[in-house]
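Thought: the user wants the 3D structure for the chain below. I'll pass the sequence to the structure tool as-is, report back what it returns, then summarize two notable features.
Action: structure_tool
Action Input:
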Amino acid sequence: MKRNHAVLLVLVVTLVLMVWAGISNYRRRKAEEARMRQMQALLMSSAPAASSSSSDEDEKSPLEGKPAPQFELEDLSGKKVSLASYRGKAVLVNFMATWCAPCKVETPWLIQLRNQYAPQGFEILGISTDDLDKDDQKKNAEDKAEIAKYAANMHIDYPVLIDGESISQKYGGVDALPTSFFIDRSGKIVAATTGLHDRDELEADIKKALASGGA
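Observation:
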């Protein structure tokens, strides 16, 4: 009888701990989502107002209307990934970094938009510009692990490529983050943005890339 009571007590304690862990994880997730929404609202409210059409033309990327510069970079598993392998799809090349606060605001929108438009032939390539210590094998591995940890924590489900600095000059020099290039199905850049832009603008540029360059 005492043994049965002990087993029952263990089961009750285990159940209580499982419920408590579930509640804690739920509260932590909700708190993280609330912080992200607050950060999004704060950064968007402090962003400069949209400029006039004439100044937009002045700030237009010189790469728009031209073929996207080709590149090949490693993903987080060490596999080589080339832009050319996505020919026929609309691609968003998104230069980002683990330390970039606006990137953390933008990323949840990108994940949502990628999931929404992937069935239409859309993909995102996250290009990490984080520094890599290529002269120190151990430090290099630690740098890559930090990028992988960031991607996991942000729930990024699209490819994240490393060593973005090695191709930044091809894209006109990436002076601010995030910087994005929207590439149509034929491989041409149809739009480019620098800095944090709202979800609606990102979606509009994705639609432009999807609609352009088809057979």
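Final Answer: Structure generated. The beta strands are 72-74, 80-82, 90-96, 122-128, 160-161, 179-183, 189-194. Residues 6 and 12 are 10 Å apart (CA to CA).
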